[in-house]
What we know:
By secondary structure, the protein is of the alpha/beta class. The chain has helices at residues 3-9, 25-28, 38-48, 57-60, 96-101, 118-135, 156-168, 185-191, 208-217, 227-230, 235-246, 252-259; strands at 18-22, 52-55, 72-76, 78-79, 91-92, 106-113, 139-145, 173-176, 196-199, 222-224. It contains twelve helices and ten strands. It has an eight-stranded parallel β-barrel with strand order 1-2-3-6-7-8-9-10, surrounded by six helices. Strands 4-5 form a two-stranded antiparallel sheet. Strand 7 (139-145), helix 7 and strand 8 (173-176) form a beta-alpha-beta unit. Helix 3 (38-48) packs parallel to helix 11, helix 9 (208-217) runs parallel beside helix 11 (235-246) and helix 11 (235-246) runs antiparallel to helix 12 (252-259). The chain is globular, with a radius of gyration of 17 Å. 46% of the residues are buried. The mean pLDDT is 93. InterPro entries: Aldolase_TIM, DeoC/FbaB/LacD_aldolase, DeoC/FbaB_aldolase, FbaB-like. The active site is at 144 (proton donor), 175 (schiff-base intermediate with dihydroxyacetone-p). Pfam families: DeoC.
Amino acid sequence: xxxxxxxxxxxxxxxxxxxxxxxxxxxxxxxxxxxxxxxxxxxxxxxxxxxxxxxxxxxxxxxxxxxxxxxxxxxxxxxxxxxxxxxxxxxxxxxxxxxxxxxxxxxxxxxxxxxxxxxxxxxxxxxxxxxxxxxxxxxxxxxxxxxxxxxxxxxxxxxxxxxxxxxxxxxxxxxxxxxxxxxxxxxxxxxxxxxxxxxxxxxxxxxxxxxxxxxxxxxxxxxxxxxxxxxxxxxxxxxxxxxxxxxxxxxxxxxxxxxxxxx
Length: 263
């Protein structure tokens, strides 16, 4: 299968906009939801209209593929925990071939620019990018300015550098932080030749829907929101609302259906 075809599958309406729901937090921070809620969460995210979920390899084996439907699968290859002496350190814990055997449509790698282990993370990114090219697998790079040398992780010039590092080393899509002030995210997007997605932000922040609207207004190609989704009272309803924002109301009927409102 060509990389172009796999990339197209990552956007359900085919409009080159993306709503991803990362559920990889169980490695870094602890369980996302209880075991008896896991299948319901996956089904809700897919029903709501997410374009893809992002999980680690072991978690893939716990997912009933029937729950995903048209929702794509991205296997995350990086790991690190909040208990580490260096919370910004990331190591590879999987590879592209393994992800393909699990049915992945794409893989993702996390890189923290400015961290004490930046060199190792960049080298790992290069290795994964080479394998992605060999196997025609899209590569999503989660690239952030994080570490002791980073004064302002939302600085537009720094973010522009970070996303372009990801592109130069092989990213097909880049996920990063929303710039501050928000309107200057347009400069980051304009600097980058591949689609830029923004993270959903902290669980204690303001409305994630407003966050998505602000990001899309600057030219971003989408949103990757995990914690904001799986801690929501109704993950399906929130994902449906976000899908409507990301895909410019292409999912309006789905939003109404999930909310129980007649068209």
